[in-house]
Amino acid sequence: MTFGILFGMVIVPAMIILTGVVCYFITGKKEEKENY
C-alpha cells in the first residue's frame, strides 16, 4: 500500500533523472567534441 506508492514515487523520478543525466552527458560530450 504505502510501500508501493513510495516505491513508485522513487522509481519514476529516478528514471526521469537517469534519462536527463544520460541526455545531458551525451549532449555535453557532443558539444565538447564539436567545440574542440
TrEMBL record:
Keywords: Membrane, Transmembrane, Transmembrane helix. It comes from the Bacteria. The chain crosses the membrane at residues 6-27. This is Uncharacterized protein. The lineage of its organism: Bacteria, Bacillati, Bacillota, Bacilli, Bacillales.
